[in-house]
Specification:
The complex is a heterodimer of chains A (819) and B (474). By secondary structure, chain A is mainly alpha-helical. Helix content of chain A is 50%, strand content 4%. Among the domains of chain A are: 108 residues, no CATH class; 45 residues, no CATH class; 98 residues, no CATH class; 70 residues, no CATH class. In chain B, 30% of the residues lie in helices and 14% in strands. The chains are: A mainly alpha (819), B alpha/beta (474).
């Protein structure tokens, strides 16, 4: 039975007073307990009434699981209430119980009630007294809440469990057997803290935690959609995230660099790479590059492209769902539709494209100046080029059709297979040449010689700058947000911000008023509008948004990041919807702790993520055992109050890296272009073939963070282990356990090959099968086998070989789940 | 709780949970997982008429005016300028002249439905089919439009209809996946497997791709052939030992259903290893059946085999099978995107499709499966009634045709209409939302109530749209 409960809990949505609780009370209780008919002095028609209570005191105690009179009255056999009518079903009681557990949140009306928790001012709450066994301030909050609910923390986990937990959490890799025994034997009181420091100082930390960040920003190495082409210059952003985390870049700077690093820190090559954030999401190649300027679908393509930038920025950094206000005012949170389009206006000047930059600041500055000049020259030239490009007449339409017809037929013919086809092709080509010549004559006549002479004159300015650019050393490239780049097909730079209109009902064909760059007005103490010196400069717009988000006063920013970090350490966030702090999201399980951490992180740790990790993982709460305690599970089966540590399942990347490490094959080369772990063939839609890839190919043993992530064709092995679709932001991964996943673990060529490597690694470890088995178990599970295991494993290895045993060990639950 | 519901739960999604959410029963404290009452016949909101779906997807955009949308005016005004009375904005080209279909038209069945000579066999089944002629798309670009027909959104990352069904209804069998995709052997369609992604739904609802006819049809179903150390005996002993070890590991970890679910997933894997080759092996099918599906001719053999496998899959309880006709939009043409030479490209693809699809409908009917199996012929948008160049047609998102048969759809009806050119839907225009809503309805699902919270929004297959189309319900 309990099994169902946990499964259910995993999926369950937060209970809403308005949607779930109030209608229940209305149907079961309110007839006798209302303002006009206060039986027992109690009105249950409003939340205030529940809190005020009646003759016997308040009816509810938010946050407490027990000692809630309301629950006591409606449970029992038979329950005391309701006096008339059928008792509440177990389901209905459960709804109320969960609502109380979740803090009895009030979502009864947006406008009149007090401000939603995430938008309240951020103050450092008083720290409850430290109880027995508490190690950090985290424990004070957690244990106070446990106590309030008659729960007690679990004892500390054993040393082997602790070192494994820390390694997988901070590195996504296992400790070596030697590291485990050294730690187990180290009785120094500072051993644990020293281990934490060592792990945080290792570059493996940045590689692990960058993966979390890339989930949130939906980073990929290809565009997605039809014609899912590789993005050869997206990886510097991935490397930026890794190095920023390893360098413990202060969070406010981390934020600013990703949104507007090119503007705010123009001489810093790393800050330029950071702006890869803007372009991390998918891009519609056909919509941008093949659709004609001015068509409805072209405009729609651009609106959706900007929508992705707005959505990614707002949900990543401030955990709000501004994208819900694209078609109407936000239905649940105070975000007017106009503000959504103001956010779109922030990104009105950028497309996703490669941008050049230089490591050397002097060169970089020179290039920047030249590019600015070139852009200005291009802006002067463009109207005349457009005149030529878009000129039209009936004859031109006819010629265009003929030229296109010839093109279509030539393409369709392909390589001629016989003389007739060759002749046909030749004839079509000649016709096309003649038509093109005629077209040129018609265009020339229509636009006039003056246009051409102007173009020639203005082009000289552009070319003059190009000559100077050519003298600079070859630049580096980052796939980023760009307002100036080399045109490809119909994909051309905006040169200056495009006008953004509010779209009635989100419809591209119903433009409303012009939007002005801005942010959200709902954040207290921070103006939602920007005062911009030059609104025509798109970079200034992004810088304003970056500063708005990174502001000390932005209560959402600081709450959002500490909750994300908590989520990855503990498996569940204090707020279980890490990218939605609005009314459709969850309420915090420990609101005071969340606020304490946010203020502490901002003011005391000055945005140091490593200090935050240290604070969390050195807590007694984190160091608890993860085993079951039946009495506690009865009260809090979800472990929302943290009476034990949550058991984690290795995610796809950690699993793959761990297997490589155990097999002795892990290649720790850092950074650089993404590793293509598939056979690749470029085509109209490129072919990414994972089946035809050798698990031992060069580069194949590198960490998963360096994998080339294809959006349209995910790696089936990783996908089966719940590696998310990079087309969408993933603030929280789901965990599934399916037959098809079991098959991948058993039979995928990677797993099979690594089993062979592991067997070869442990072969020399002993002369007997028993010794080899023992070495394998130590590598895979960081402990010696028990006597029973030793016997079973040795028998199996003796009969079927060491490789089969290694493969079996890699399929055990103990390997996949981290206590 | 029986094992199936248990696995279903740890599959993550769970008709059980979906149901509970929809009924507003979010409690965890019920004594048994909520189960759909038998009276609903497998539905979760109301009585279901259909239990399964086979979707045939014409990648690249199959023309409506060369198949099922008969317009005499294209014949009478052949070669004249195309002037529908407004500016025509096309994907690639300027509008050419009015171009009649290269195929003739005939009437079929009791309903007298006009079908082009491209589909003479399929046409025999018109009295089983409900045609929707007034479909529109929100994009005229293959990628977004193909996403839309599959997921209801023109953006990537949303769950496909098959994944939604898996989430809503769960499995009908213990041995095979819920949602299976049979891609064209020439390659993936535009967007690749993104078209059948589970999106933000748990990965247990992702499709299993079966490459019919390939030596290794399901990824990782068996160990690589090179791994000779893996034998029948080593597998048998190994899995038994693994279970023993995993069971022992649960001591002290009670209450963590994942551990038990994972143990069970290996049992299911073993069953899948046995049942998958069986379902893909068509040797036991009669000569008549093989002939019916066109296995005796090269041009129809591939789709014939895949349609036959689709029938075998749903026969064994697979919920949703998607069969693709056509790969990506590259050259030489390997899908329905006939910009250059429609007679040739539609001709080949149509001929390859015609007999197998007719066979599928007749075979399902003969086996009594058509009553509760929906067959859905679909494509991402239509093609223009005017020419592109001299022999092709450009994209037409303004009006195109889809048809549905079986599973409670009314046969021999035509819903909605395009104008006299087959250019724009003018009578009862609909989007895929309405088709999806109607399909879900027949599967016992209220499309408004089938939702999943993602990034702050309760997402649905039908977005915020969707109207039932009662005229096509039997």
């Amino acid at each position: 039975m309990t099994l169902v409960l946990s499964a259910f809990t995993l999926m369950a949505q937060p209970v809403s007073y308005t949607r779930d609780v109030q209608p229940l009370l209305q149907s079961k209780c309110v007839a006798c307990h209302q303002a006009a008919n206060r039986s027992g002095g109690l009105s249950l028609s409003s939340l205030a009434g529940l809190k005020t209570g009646g003759a016997h005191g308040p009816a509810i105690r938010p946050g407490a699981v027990t000692e809630n009179p309301l629950l006591a009255y409606i449970t029992g056999d038979p329950p005391r209430m309701p006096k008339a009518g059928a008792p509440l079903t177990p389901d209905q009681v459960g709804v109320i119980r969960r609502w109380l557990e979740q803090g009895a949140q009030d979502d009864s009306s947006g406008a009149t009630d007090e401000t939603w928790w995430s938008l309240r001012a951020l103050r450092r709450p008083p720290v409850p007294a430290l109880g027995n066994g508490a190690r950090t301030v985290v424990d004070a909050f957690v244990q106070a809440k446990l106590k309030q609910n008659q729960l007690t923390p679990s004892p500390e986990a054993d040393r082997r469990t602790l070192i494994r937990r820390l390694y997988f959490d901070l590195h996504g890799l296992p400790p070596s057997p030697e590291e485990v025994s050294a730690f187990v034997q180290d009785r120094s009181p500072t051993a644990y803290d020293a281990l934490v420091d060592r792990l945080l100082a290792s570059p493996r930390y940045g590689e692990r935690w960058a993966r979390h960040w890339l989930d949130i920003v939906h980073y990929g190495d290809s565009h997605g959609y039809d014609k899912d082409k590789p993005r050869p210059n997206s990886w510097p952003y991935r490397d930026y995230v890794i190095s920023a985390l390893n360098a413990d870049k202060p969070y406010a700077r981390f934020v600013r660099e990703q949104i507007a690093g090119d503007v705010l820190y123009p001489d810093d090559a790393r800050a330029m790479e950071a702006t890869g954030f803007l372009a991390a999401g998918p891009w519609d190649f056909v919509g941008h590059q093949e659709l004609k300027e001015g068509t409805t679908d072209k405009n729609l393509t651009r609106v959706l492209d900007r929508d992705d930038m707005v959505t990614t920025t707002v949900s990543t950094f401030v955990s709000m769902t501004a994208h819900c206000a694209r078609c109407h005012n936000h239905k649940f949170d105070p975000i007017p539709q106009a503000e959504y389009y103001n956010l779109q206006a922030v990104f009105a000047g950028v497309d996703r494209a490669d941008r050049p930059y230089d490591e050397d600041p002097t060169t970089n500055r020179r290039r920047r100046d030249l590019l600015r000049q070139k852009q200005a020259a291009q802006l002067r030239l463009q109207p005349y080029l457009d005149k030529v490009e878009f000129v039209s007449s009936p004859e031109l339409v006819e010629l265009d059709n003929r030229i296109q017809d010839a093109g279509l037929l030539i393409v369709h013919l392909g390589e001629p297979k016989n003389a007739a086809q060759a002749a046909e092709k030749k004839q079509l080509e000649e016709r096309r040449i003649a038509d093109r010549a005629r077209r040129q004559t018609v265009v020339d006549a229509l636009v006039g010689a003056e246009t051409y002479s102007t173009i020639a004159r203005l082009k000289q300015d552009v070319e003059a700058v190009d000559r100077q650019l050519a003298q600079l050393p070859a630049p580096k490239l980052i796939y980023s947000g760009a307002n100036f780049f080399t045109r490809a097909g119909a994909f051309r730079p905006s040169l200056q911000p495009r006008p953004v209109h509010l779209l009635e009902r989100g419809s591209i064909t119903s433009p409303g008023p012009l939007a002005v760059p801005g942010a959200l007005s709902a954040v207290p103490g921070l103006p939602g509008t920007f005062t911009l010196p030059e609104a025509s400069d798109e970079g200034v717009r992004r810088a304003a948004l970056a500063n708005w988000i990174a502001d000390d006063a932005n209560v959402l920013t600081w709450r959002s990041i500490v909750n994300r970090v908590w989520h990855y350490h503990f498996g569940t966030g204090l707020v279980d919807t890490p990218s939605d702090f609005g009314r459709m999201g969850s309420a915090p399980s420990h609101p005071e702790l969340l606020d304490y951490l946010a203020v502490w992180f901002r003011d005391d740790a000055h945005g140091s993520l490593k200090q935050l990790h240290r604070l969390l993982v050195t807590s007694a709460t984190y160091r608890q055992a993860s085993g079951n305690v039946e009495a506690a599970a009865k009260l809090d089966s979800d472990n929302r109050l943290l009476w034990r540590m949550n058991r984690g399942r290795l995610d796809a990347e950690a699993l793959r890296d761990t297997v490589l490490s155990i097999a002795g094959q892990l290649d720790l080369t850092m950074g650089g272009p993404a590793v293509r772990m598939f056979a690749f063939k470029d085509d109209h839609s490129p072919i990414y073939d994972y089946a035809r890839f050798d698990p031992d190919a060069p580069g194949a043993h590198r960490r998963s963070i360096y994998r080339f992530i294809v959006r349209s064709v995910p790696d089936p092995f990783m996908e089966r282990l719940d590696c998310p679709d990079p087309s969408i932001q993933t603030p929280k991964r789901t965990t599934t356990l399916t037959a098809i996943q079991a098959l991948a673990m058993l039979n995928n060529p990677f797993m099979v090959r690594m089993s062979e490597h592991l067997a070869a690694r442990v072969q020399p470890a002993g002369k007997t099968v028993a010794e080899q088995v023992s070495a394998a178990v130590r590598l895979v599970l960081n402990r010696p086998p028990t006597a029973t295991e030793a016997e079973l494993y040795s028998t199996y290895a003796g009969q079927h070989g060491l490789v089969n045993l290694c493969r079996l060990l890699l399929n055990t639950n103990e390997f996949l789940f981290i206590d | 709780m029986d094992r199936r519901s248990f696995l279903w739960n740890w599959g993550g999604g769970l008709g059980g949970i979906a149901l509970a959410q929809m009924l507003g029963q979010e409690s965890l404290l019920a004594d048994a997982p909520p189960k759909p009452p038998a009276a609903l016949n497998g539905g979760i909101h109301h009585r279901a008429k259909a239990k399964r779906v086979i979707q045939l997807f014409m990648s690249g955009a199959a023309s409506q005016c060369d198949t099922f949308d008969y317009k005499p005016r294209l014949i009478s005004e052949a070669g004249k300028p195309f002037q529908p009375g407004e500016k025509v904005e096309l994907f690639q080209s300027n509008p050419g002249v009015v171009m009649p279909s290269p195929w003739g038209w005939k009437q079929y069945g009791q309903s007298g439905k006009w079908v082009s000579d491209l589909f003479p066999h399929t046409a025999q089944c018109v009295d089983e089919m409900a045609f929707i002629h007034s479909l529109r798309s929100k994009s005229n670009i293959h990628g977004p439009a193909t996403f839309m027909q599959n997921t209801g959104f023109i953006l990537p990352g949303f769950p496909s209809a098959g994944s939604w069904l898996s989430y809503a209804l769960g499995t009908l069998n213990d041995n095979l996946p819920v949602f299976v995709v049979l891609p064209d052997p020439r390659g993936f369609p535009p967007n690749g497997p993104g078209n059948w992604t589970a999106g933000f739904l748990p990965a247990s609802h992702q499709a299993t791709t079966i490459r019919v006819g390939s030596p290794n049809p399901i990824y990782d179903l068996e160990p690589p052939a090179s791994a000779r150390f893996i034998t029948k005996a080593s597998e048998l002993d190994g899995l038994a030992l693994l279970e023993k070890i995993n069971r022992a590991h649960t001591a002290g970890r009670e209450g963590d259903s994942r551990l038990d679910a994972r143990i069970a997933s290996y049992e299911m894997a073993a069953r899948l290893q046995l049942s998958a080759p069986e379902v893909l092996n068509i040797d036991g099918e009669s000569e008549a059946t093989r002939k019916l599906y066109g296995l005796d001719q090269e041009i129809t053999a591939d789709l014939g085999r895949r349609c036959l496998v689709a029938r075998r899959l749903i026969e064994r309880g697979v919920r949703f099978v998607q069969v693709w006709s056509g790969a990506d939009n590259g050259f030489p043409r390997r899908n329905w995107d006939s910009h250059e030479n429609l007679a040739k490209d539609h001709g080949e693809l149509g001929t390859a499709l015609d007999r197998p699809v007719a066979a599928l409908l007749k075979d399902l009917q003969a086996r009594g499966l058509l009553d509760d199996t929906i067959v859905h012929w679909s494509t991402e948008f239509g093609r223009m009634p005017c020419s592109q160049g001299s022999k092709g047609r450009d994209h037409n998102p303004f009006g195109f045709t889809t048809w549905l048969a079986g599973g409670g759809f009314k046969g021999g009806v035509s819903y909605g209409a395009t104008d006299e050119w087959s250019y724009k839907a003018v009578e009862k225009p609909v989007y895929c939302y309405d088709v999806h809503a109607t399909m879900l309805h027949l599967l016992g699902i209220d499309h408004h109530k089938l939702s999943y919270r993602n990034n702050g929004i309760d997402r649905r297959l039908t977005d915020v749209h969707g109207e039932l189309l009662p005229e096509v319900l039997g």
